[in-house]
Amino acid sequence: MENTIENKKVIFSGIQPSGELTLGNYLGAIKNWVSLQDEFDCYFCVVDLHAITVRQEPKDLRKRTLEVLAIYIASGIVPEKNTLFIQSHVPAHSECAWLLTCNTYMGELSRMTQYKDKSQRYGDSICAGLFTYPVLMAADILLYNTDLVPVGQDQKQHLELSRDIANRFNNTYSPTFKVPDPYIPKVGAKVMSLQDPTKKMSKSDDNANSYILIMDPPEVIRKKVSRAVTDSIGVINYCAEQPGVKNLIDIICAIKGSTPSELVEFYKGKGYADLKKDAAEAIIEELAPVQAKVNELLSNKKYLEEIYKSGADKANYVANKVLRKMQKKIGLIPR
Fold this sequence. Notes:
Layout: H1 2-7, E1 10-15, H2 23-34, E2 41-46, H3 48-51, H4 58-74, E3 83-86, H5 92-101, H6 106-110, H7 113-122, H8 128-142, E4 148-150, H9 156-173, E5 181-183, H10 218-226, H11 243-256, H12 260-266, H13 272-298, H14 301-330
Parallel strand pairs: 1-2, 2-3, 4-5
């Protein structure tokens, strides 16, 4: 067993428990992770330390952290094949982040698009964590000798920074980190907002009709999809000029494994109502077994605790080896 794992490339990824997860998280990330677990040595983390860059209600954060873990497992991520853990249960993430912060430049962090967007919105009241969290993200990745990081378009810049930080540390102190590459899934669904299909579906959107939550009941899903913005063209095409229609086709394709051209052919002579009805039913059918399993897992907290504890044990072992190496090279006295 050890031998096979050693020969596998390492993948690291995580999702914040800062709100309930959406269909976009599921189709864009989690569903793809399921297909990676046989080929790679995967670390899937619930990144709770990232969530607190924005003030959280403590009881909600605890509840959602367990819910995200349950969603991972319910979606088909097998605990025995992967390392599933909660970020704050591995202190090396925070320690490594500080050591890397001291090797990162203010200019690099101020150029991060997400920071620029948020600082424009919040001004001087933005917390320092929102400025430095890309360094914590670099720590998350570099601690596990990660080869590949599944990234969407919006995180590419952060991965690029992780690579820069790793190279700088290696050049300053001698080779320490593996420099990670982006992993672009063969089929990556980018799910857009149902109300503004030019923007990515996001749980932080003010309009609840713009996103579908993984745990939304069928009647809510039907209602949200029926209200999805389309256009006045009235013909089902797959093109940039019809982003709303394109988004619904993408969702069906991601769930059913069909191609856009097959669906355009299928809907010839049919209207948007047919497309919306089919999209809603496809989503409901896909999420129903996940929702049932999540509810079952959340009623068995002891089992979830066993999973995150054994995951943290393995993650701590690997991360601490890398952290000790860093500390030694920097000149800190070993404890």
